[in-house]
Specification:
homodimer, mainly alpha, DNA-binding, Four Helix Bundle (Hemerythrin (Met), subunit A), 3-stranded antiparallel beta sheet
DNA sequence: ACGGTATTATTGTCATACAATCTGTCGAAA
DNA sequence: TTTCGACAGATTGTATGACAATAATACCGT
């Protein structure tokens, strides 16, 4: 965890751009979201400590944080495992996601500035351009960028704080659902409806388009989940 | 933290009904919710360790958990402080609460069993009986009981997991707003509308009644917050 | 093959330590 | 007198090591 501080004009001492715990936390989080652990897999503390080169108390702090966000579960005398929501729970999470993103779209249509709307349209353009060559990482990046604008500029910054844990808990399904053949084009079309409604300042249409979009994503994800339950 | 194990027929060793960390966490949480700390107050780790009789790593785990839930904030090299949301943030939180409780009411009206509805009515009855002698702790208990039913039986168990942190962050306002003269009666009347709508299985009315109720609570809380900003 | 027991691995928790950083104080210079 | 800077104390951020309690596993005798 050494950080080179070479830039001469800057402050000499740049010990940690962020706390070490935050780094451990984020590393662990993205490892889980990227599927580097199986659902339900036991997270052995000593192994992770050695792998990341940090002490056990620090690692545990990171784990506790992720536990609070619902990404991992704690089993009383067994330790931490990657959360593995049941099908019912996944359905409930999608339902929540639908409501929260619908709310964000509604607020954005109500309160977004013209500049915000322009940003949103730009992000949508980037996403649209990917329909022909759907590469996983690009699609994911463009989607995140779109939603980052939607959440950050919708006028209610707290939506993001509650939505993020929800998204984390269904992230293991989202990857797949976007790359199904044909699904991307449909999905982008649905998102286009959201953008249109926002552009027209049609509050209800924006909310409904957003809810519809997530409902479709949920259906796609749940079908897949039912087919491969242990995935 | 000694636990007497005297019952003869039971297992002899009853070390911890729950993990010690959970206990520390909950103790700390309720202390904060009960206003035993000022908003923005610095939480000094060593003091809390001694007060609760636990080690610093364990205390920190509890603090990190509460941080993840938004109850406390971490300031880079200063440690943890009790979260002190700005007026804008409080407004955003009430907006979210309104949407989420509206959703719960809607789902309850859609999916609650008759037995669930009967339970809800019973809780409402208990609340109604308190209008004449509004004692803080009773009102709070009855309100929690009502909402516990509403959240647990609405058919989407995830709503509670996202709503709870939201409620925690505005808890410091909720106490006051219920005890304002006249407000309780009005509040109970609003809740009564929710119950009625649910009884009638009127999904939209249930959602709207719930949203309206929280909007009124928000207005009351925000007026108070603007009058006593440092409260 | 099966049931019970011993061993091992791992968690839950503690005590302690120490460098880095922040805070506040006190003195020195303008 | 006011302001600036250095010093000391307090507190965090992180590490090490330890130990009891529990769960998992392997072993062994029947």
């Amino acid at each position: 965890m050494t950080i080179s501080s070479s830039a001469k004009g800057q402050r000499l001492r740049v010990p940690r751009p962020t706390s070490l715990r935050d780094h451990v936390q984020e590393t662990l989080r993205s490892s889980i979201l990227n599927g580097e652990f199986q659902l339900g897999e036991h997270l052995v503390e000593r192994e992770l400590c050695e792998a990341m080169g940090v002490s056990r108390p620090l690692l545990r702090e990171a784990l506790v944080h992720l536990e609070a966000r619902g990404l991992i579960d704690r089993i009383p005398a067994r330790g931490f495992v990657v959360a593995q929501p049941s099908i019912d729970r996944v359905a409930a999470l999608y339902e929540l996601r639908s409501a929260l993103e619908g709310l964000a779209a509604q607020f954005f249509a109500e309160r977004g500035t013209e500049a915000d709307i322009a940003s949103l349209k730009a992000r949508f353009g980037e996403l649209y351009a990917l329909i022909d060559k759907p590469e996983l990482s690009s699609v994911r990046a463009a989607t995140s960028a779109f939603y980052a604008i939607l959440m950050d500029r919708c006028g209610n910054p707290e939506i993001r704080t509650v939505l993020e844990p929800v998204l984390d808990r269904i992230a293991f399904l989202r990857t797949q659902s976007m790359t199904r053949p044909g699904r991307l084009g449909q999905s982008v079309a649905e998102i286009g409806k959201i953008v249109e409604a926002i552009k027209a300042r049609d509050v209800d249409a924006a909310r409904i388009a957003s809810e519809t979009h997530i409902a479709a994503a949920a259906e796609s994800a749940l079908i897949r989940l039912r087919d491969f339950p242990q995935d």
